[in-house]
Amino acid sequence: MEEEVKESAVFPANTPFDKEAFLDDIMHDYGHDILRLVYTYVNNKAVAEDLTQDIFLKCYRKFDQFNYESSIKTWLYRITVNHCKDYLRSWHCRKVMINEAVISALPSKDKQVDDEVIQKSTDEQLADAVMRLPMKYREVIYLFYYEELKLEEISATLNVNINTIKSRLKRAREVLKMMVEEV
Amino acid sequence: MEKKLARLKKSMTKHVFKDLSFSAEHQNAVRERLQRRYPFISYSDNTLWTIFTSIEHHPKHGFDILQILFHKGDMTFHRQEGYLYTLLHTFESRGFIKGEWSREKDKWKKYYFLTNKGKKALHKAAQKQKAPSLKNILEGGLAET
């Protein structure tokens, strides 16, 4: 007890919130979720890992701006989504994407690829189809069915009106249906 | 479609995210980047506060700053004075403080003082500290609303 009193005498009342501990906590609690969310935007493991690190550093810097009107999770996801979209718009990313598109458009040597596609389970086909959806449909499907967020939370995360979210979900399901049945 | 989508979580985890993991190494990499960007991060705010205010009005030698810290009961640099000098160097390289050499009885000493940038940072922090802490409010009683 006496020692505790001594401690608080050394660190008076204005000891600031421990932002480093906060960073450790959010990395521990949300690291995997953020990485997966990032991956759904960039579809590349190495890029997703880099961006996730950037995002946590950003959260550290922006901590002062966090207010308790939104949950930590919504706040983190919003930063993540915005960061990913900024990245996708960046010159660097566009250059990488064009290069990859050129490489994948090159004729492949063997017919094996086609066989693999046919052998995919319906579950896998659906997961692939989700990843091939246009971004505005992919993100709502992911947040709703994978993250199981409520419509209001999705609306807050994406900063998009709730009715728009609903109509995008509806349209996304239609598109997905076409994609899966086509195969 | 709804039925299939109900299984999306399982199938994406299995097929799309199978090699993804935010490992301990990734977390460490973030911490290292943070440390590199803010080398003073491991020091308590009180320590930094004492250093900045001690040289706000009059330039001081590192040894004097050390004495002020000890006097306040801050033993952060006790038996590791060298860290204070690296910290001062960090702040100098970022323009918050400036060190000037001056000669005293045949000895050269470096005196540190806050630059305008350093003063601005201190004032900005002081404004934030004016916000009453919960502790202060609780100590003052809850009668006032």
UniProtKB/TrEMBL annotation, chain A:
Belongs to the sigma-70 factor family. ECF subfamily. Transmembrane segments: none annotated. Signal peptide: none annotated. It holds the Pfam family Sigma70_r2. This is RNA polymerase sigma-70 factor, ECF subfamily. One of its GO terms (biological process) is DNA-templated transcription initiation. It comes from the Bacteria. InterPro entries: RNA_pol_sigma-70-like, RNA_pol_sigma-70_dom, RNA_pol_sigma70_r2, RNA_pol_sigma70_r4_t2, RNA_pol_sigma_r2, RNA_pol_sigma_r3/r4-like, WH-like_DNA-bd_sf. PANTHER family: RNA POLYMERASE ECF-TYPE SIGMA FACTO, RNA POLYMERASE SIGMA FACTOR SIGV. Keywords: Sigma factor, Transcription, Transcription regulation. One of its GO terms (molecular function) is sigma factor activity. Residues 124-174 form the RNA polymerase sigma factor 70 region 4 type domain. SUPFAM superfamilies: Sigma2 domain of RNA polymerase sigma factors, Sigma3 and sigma4 domains of RNA polymerase sigma factors. Residues 28-90 form the RNA polymerase sigma-70 region domain.
From TrEMBL, chain B:
Signal peptide: none annotated. Residues 54-124 form the Transcription regulator PadR N-terminal domain. SUPFAM superfamilies: Winged helix' DNA-binding domain. It holds the Pfam family PadR. This is Transcriptional regulator PadR-like family protein.
